[in-house]
Amino acid sequence: MKRIADTRLESGDLYLFTPTAHFLSGAGLWGIFDRIGENGEIRLEVYSPDFEHFRRTATLPPEYLYCRQATRHELRDFAFNMGSQRI
């Protein structure tokens, strides 16, 4: 995991965001990065804590300080499950 501040987030890419540098099961938030808001907040198009429950448009909570880009496998699973949910 890298600090979000040291990461160049790409709009439309899926990331795993965590509050610590070491991923703890259940402590992560998967989200598709949208943009940096007017006050420097990270805006997500869609997010899910578990690949089962999806929500649209949100600001990443400030306690999430680290991230990594999703693998192709993770992106495929996220997109498939999100499509199945019809959020």
Secondary structure layout plus pairing:
Elements: E1 2-3, E2 14-18, E3 29-36, E4 42-48, E5 55-59, E6 66-69, H1 72-85
Antiparallel strand pairs: 1-6, 2-3, 2-6, 3-4, 4-5
Short note summarizing the structure:
With 87 residues, the protein is an alpha+beta fold. 16% of the residues lie in helices and 36% in strands.
Please, could you describe this protein's structure?
- The protein has 87 residues and is α+β, with helices and mostly antiparallel strands.
- It has one domain: SH3 type barrels (Roll).
- 16% of the residues lie in helices and 36% in strands.
- The chain contains one helix and six strands.
- It has a six-stranded antiparallel beta sheet, with no helix packed on it.
- It is globular.
- The model has no long low-confidence stretch (mean pLDDT 92).
